[in-house]
Amino acid sequence: MSIDVIPLNTYFGAEIRGLDLSQPLSDTDFEAWSDAFAKYRLLLFRDQHFSEDQHVEFSKHFGGLEDFVDSKDQVNSHTDILRVSNIWQDTDAIKPVDDPGHKSFTLGTSGWHIDSSFRKVPGKASLLFAIEIPPEGGGTGFADMVSAYEGLSDEKKAQCDELTVIHDFEEARRRYGLLPRMEEIRVANPSVMHPLVRTLPDGKKCLFLGSHTSYVLGMEQYEGRKFLDGLNDWTTQEKYTFFHDWNEGDLVMWDNLALMHRAMPYDLESHRRLLHRTTVLGDGPVV
Ligand code: OGA
Ligand code: MN
Question: Residue of the nearest CA to atom 7 in ligand 1?
Fold first, then answer.
């Protein structure tokens, strides 16, 4: 099959045409896919129809998959497919907006973030597939931390290159006004340190930010917060972002370490939204 790669934006993102994901992936197609992924960091496939098993299967070409611990969040007991949804799986009803788990997921995904940046080894890519999409809103935004780093002044780059940032799951919860999780959960998930600037396999550099950033090592807390918020604003300016408006049958795969992402608002109470996500495990600590 011949694959076309059509850029979506100036700096990142491409649509892939000519791949039917319900068919087994040949070595040549996988190579074209992974080359395009390394180059564009976000890939969109439209009009796809594939089973849950197939979603797992093509995702696994990129590495082992994350397991999602809570069975309520899993798709039909696939431990490695996450339901991203405002619909209960068992009753098919819309979740109440104040259901605690739903509320924390909705708030948590509404700000610019990197999935599990609060872990030593965050996932390296996610593959999100649209099944039911609201008539208005409910898109997903992506911000490119590679081109955002490249756009910084030389002094700012040099300053960022030296910094280490503490990431903590509780930070985003505090900001969204959610109560801290139970003590044993907090103790089992201590904050982690990541460099503010990552080097990609091809030698390019990128910022490593997101809503789980808590403070900058060695900087007064408020100054560090202002500094991180400034970088967040810089990275999420129009030229470094892409907002995807979903159609049913769209699959978006993105580099979780090089892009931040966020869910866009929609009418949670009266419109249904269901996507399925697989996440490819990271190869090691952020470097
Ligand atoms: C996620 C996430 C964004 C969205 O699943 O981690 O941030 O638009 N989703 O649902
Ligand atoms: Mn997310």
Answer: 109
Whole-model pTM over 0.90? yes
Examine residue 285 and state whether it is found in any structural domain, yes or no: no
259-279 pLDDT tens trace:
999 999 999 999 999 999 999
pLDDT, one tens digit per residue, over 199-227 is 998 899 999 999 999 999 999 999 999 99
Q: What's the CATH code of the domain at 260?
A: 3.60.130.10
**227 within a domain of the structure (yes/no):** yes
Domain count for the chain, please give it.
Answer: 1
Answer whether residue 257 is part of any domain: yes
48 or 100: whose pLDDT is higher?
48
Give the domain extent around 144: 4-280
Tokens of 271: 């419109």
Could you give the dihedral angle defined by the CA atoms of residues 56, 61, 62 and 66, in that order, rounded to the nearest 10 degrees?
Answer: 30
Query: Strands, DSSP E only, in 56-163?
Result: 74-75, 78-85, 125-132, 140-144
**CA 77-83-84 angle, 5° bins:** 170
Closest Cα to atom 5, ligand 1: which residue?
Answer: 84
| Residue from 17, 200, 188, 37 nearest 119 by CA | 188
**Is 265 a member of any domain?**
yes
Q: What atom of ligand 1 comes closest to residue 261's alpha carbon?
A: 7
Helix H or strand E segment including 269: none
